[in-house]
User: Fold this.
Amino acid sequence: MERVLEQILFASRWLLAPLYFGLALVLVLLAALFFRELAHLATAATALREVDVILAALTLIDLALIGGLVVMVMLSGYENFISKLDEAAAGQRIAWLGKLDTGTLKLKVAASIVAISSIQLLKGFMEVDTLPDDKLLWMVVMHLTFVVSALMLAVMERLMAGTGKGGK
Assistant:
């Protein structure tokens, strides 16, 4: 009975595969959005002010960061929880693949969220004349919350690694 239960539990990891496939579809949507924004920037480039071009560039950078985050979670999650990826058969090699455990992945996600939040805050500062003060204040508060959360997560990971109990 125990053996059957263990086999069922082990096989259930494949229930995560559709979630990672869903992330691949999100990546397609992000790419479409990126190219839509890029086309909009290209067609309106001569009519845009410098600040508008900078904001558009920040939007593209933001989308690229989110896309990278999706790839990181999708591939490392698949490899950590479902099955080892056969990179040799695909003829590709990703240096970080296989080196990201769940603790490291959490730190990378937190750092990416802080970077994305920084870009959003910078966008807010670029539009400081039109943005209500309370909205700007909330953006700063949320960004600082992300920064403190990421720092606390890093400290906890380091402490756990020091005790040899880092859930990795």
About this structure: Helices lie at 2-11, 17-44, 50-81, 87-90, 102-126, 133-163. The chain has a mean pLDDT of 87.
